[in-house]
User: What shape does this take?
Amino acid sequence: MAKLKKGTRCTICKAKGKKEKAIVFLPHHRLALCKKHFIEWFEKRVEKTIKEFKMFSRKDKILVAVSGGKDSLALWNTLNKLGYEADGFYIDLGIPEYSEDSKKLAITFSERIKRPLHIVSLKEEIAPIPVIEKSTNRPACSACGTVKRYYMNKYAKELGYSIIATGHNLDDEAAVLFGNTLSWDIKYLKRQYPVLEEENGFVRKVKPLCKITEKEAALYAFFNNIEYIEYECPFSEGASSIEYKELLSQLEEKHPGTKLQFYTNFLKKMYPILKEHEKKQSEEVSSCKICGEPTFWDICSICRLKEKVAAGN
Ligand code: SF4
Ligand code: ZN
Assistant: This one.
């Protein structure tokens, strides 16, 4: 986030004839804001994104994927403040130290906002992530992504939620888009939209923070005294998405607004073309022969993962 010049006043306070000092500068929005108006700006921006993409209404029951990190907790806090019916869902991945610390923070936050947090233990469902990584020879993050998607979907249905909201921010979305563009991965590019409709046993999935940067989410959490896990998961080291994030942040420093433009122009200009392409080549979804959950194969990836873990023990 760019530095503030000494003595800069809050843009909104100034317009109202007040003289509050700004403590945040958002160069790509040309806004200097005081704490109160930054929080207001953040929540309004999330609400605007929810409306722009018709994500959900106040009648929907929303399940927020909570990791204990700043993004998911900032999202949960915002939805709660905006009056949405949003509860939390935490998957204990069984990663030593990291999972224990993040779980505690997720529980503390759910108590603070007095909303239920559903907790699922991967150890009880299959095995902890480090065990899955060893017995399947699959990178931890790839197995972890599959596991999170599967259990979020399964439990959202079982618990009666019609929407799954995740805390993916603009930096996440721009980095993934950058990676998928480098390899022109059409299969993934055509799924890169802030709303994935409910279909074939998949619950509707939304990303209300897709136009909020990582730094803005961290500031929002800080200003609201939200305690979140401040260190990365040990498996995140060396992930290519982190390199892409750094590259894009360097560009952003020089040309504020690059990330937002890259992402929103994709949504406006490229996504509709890919969507058309998808209609012509839709993949057949069936039900897993073992667990009944939706899958593109006979047996879903989680049931195959379970078989591998069982064989490895
Ligand atoms: Fe899972 Fe990888 Fe994220 Fe760790 S870094 S929580 S293993 S996806
Ligand atoms: Zn299955």
Q: What stands out?
A: The chain has two domains: 1-33, 36-312. The longest helix spans residues 258-280. Residues 129, 140-141, 144-145, 233, 235-236 surround iron/sulfur cluster (ligand 1) (CB under 6 Å).
